[in-house]
Amino acid sequence: MSISEYNGSAIVAMAGKDCVALATDTRFGISFKTVSTDFDRVYKMGPRIYMGMAGLVTDMYTVSARLRFRLNLYELRENRPVAPRVFFSMITNLLYERRFGSYFSAPVVAALDPVNGKPLIAAYDCIGDLEVVNDFFADGTSTEQLLGICETLWKPNMDSEELYEVISQCLLNAQDSDALAGWGAQVYIIEKDKVTKKTLKARLD
Amino acid sequence: MAPMRAFQCSDLPMNTTTFTPDLHGPRFDPYSLNGGTMLGITGADYCLLAADTRLCGPGYMILSRDESRLFEFTPQLALAAGGGFHGDTLTLTKLLSARVKSYKYDHRKEITAASFAALLSNMLYQRRLFPFYVYNLVGGLDEEGRGALYGYDPVGSYQRGRFECLGVAQSLIDPLLDCKVGNMNSQHAAIPLSGQDAVQLARDVFTAAAEREINVGDSVEIKLITATGVENFRYNLRND
């Protein structure tokens, strides 16, 4: 298995009408051994900015910590929460600094634009290529499984309840086909007035 | 500035020969990857087989947009074969046609799905040390008229199942089938799929796979096997 499959992960972000959802599995493994079954991969980086990280866990810790450092300094200097698109560029810059010796972890960011409330999903590769997508994005060891089912079940302008159902079905069924991801799921539904976190019951293998 | 000329496949920066050098020197690779994705769904009185029709070549080439991967053997029995080397698909189906004809002459009846399934398994395992690089799905009706589907690996291990997907887009399609046909991770009771519903589901599934998998596209061919015979459907997919 390659280095980005060493720990296993499944992450998907989906856009709805004025809402966005981010869902991840909760397995942490070392190769085929499962070490933790309630592992949190999501970081809150702003009032409506949530970042999930796929790939090698040690790099997930490092990247998120370094990003938190830069974010904190930004917010101290500017005296306001960071805007999503600025934060997206921050991530790109941090990852590209390691262009020829990259981190093996890539973020998936789900955010709401504070100005117009529209969903924003930022997708990256491990060296910082930023693509802002308007439907869905999947990362981790279950990428192919997630892409297949998301492509069929997603439709534009879903409200938050339907978005929650669709993203949950996509993640649960995709991670069931992947040995390295699973053991539970967490879904964050981000709306203008609230953020809801739900934990799903999944196959425990 | 150089004048424009037509694109040549030799422009592709790929080694398109099948010789791959290693410690033993250049070796001939007897297989080539020709793509292909197959899907099978069964119901109480039908079996559906679907396959895309794009034949891929080495180096992102498309060799044909219209190469069938579905083969009929009797009015209630068909085979979807692909996902590997197309040369082996053609040879295997040629041999199977001959064996099915032989069976009919020897036993004075058409071969049943279960017998054909066992026959295919044995034929594949006979080539255990130089396999047919083909992923197979046998679809038909069993003795009681219920849909029967058997899924294989290239060396003949097989199992009867309610639904199955094989080929290059298998990892994309499997979770979707688990959700929609297998009713997994669902709090609601299962709604049985009729034959026509299954055809539309297969069409949607291939449309989604064609979006995200480069080797899937052009069109999808579907065979719906019922007691009255085989009904054929064909739908276009993305050409890119």
Give the H and E element order of chain B. EEEEEEEEHHEEEEHHEE
Structural class of chain B: alpha+beta
Poorly predicted sequence stretches spanning 5 or more consecutive residues of chain A: none
Count of helix runs of chain B? 4
Helix content of chain A: 25-40%
Question: How many β strands of chain B by DSSP?
Answer: 14
Radius of gyration of chain A: 16 Å
What do these coordinates show?
The complex is a heterodimer of chains A (about 200) and B (about 240). Chain A has about 200 residues and is of the alpha+beta class. Chain A has four helices and twelve strands; from the N terminus they run ββββββααββββααββ. Chain A has helices at about 55-80, 85-95, 145-155, 160-175; strands spanning about 10-15, 20-25, 30, 35, 40-45, 50-55, 105-110, 120-125, 130-135, 135-140, 185-190, 195-200. In chain A, the strands form three sheets. A five-stranded antiparallel β-sheet of chain A has the order 10-1-2-11-12, with helices on one face. In chain A, strands 5-6-7-8-9 form a five-stranded antiparallel β-sheet. In chain A, strands 3-4 form a two-stranded antiparallel sheet. In chain A, helix 1 (about 55-80) crosses helix 2 (about 85-95) and helix 3 runs antiparallel to helix 4 (about 160-175). The longest helix of chain A is centred in the N-terminal third of the chain and has 22 residues, at about 55-80. The two termini of chain A are about 20 Å apart. The model of chain A has no long low-confidence stretch (mean pLDDT about 95). By secondary structure, chain B is α+β, with helices and mostly antiparallel strands. Helix content of chain B is about 25%, strand content about 30%. Chain B has four helices and 14 strands. Chain B has helices spanning about 85-105, 115-125, 170-180, 195-210, and strands at about 20, 25-30, 35-40, 45-50, 55, 60-65, 70-75, 75-80, 135-140, 145-150, 160, 165, 220-225, 230-235. Chain B starts with 18 loop residues before the first strand and ends with a strand. The model of chain B has no long low-confidence stretch (mean pLDDT about 90).
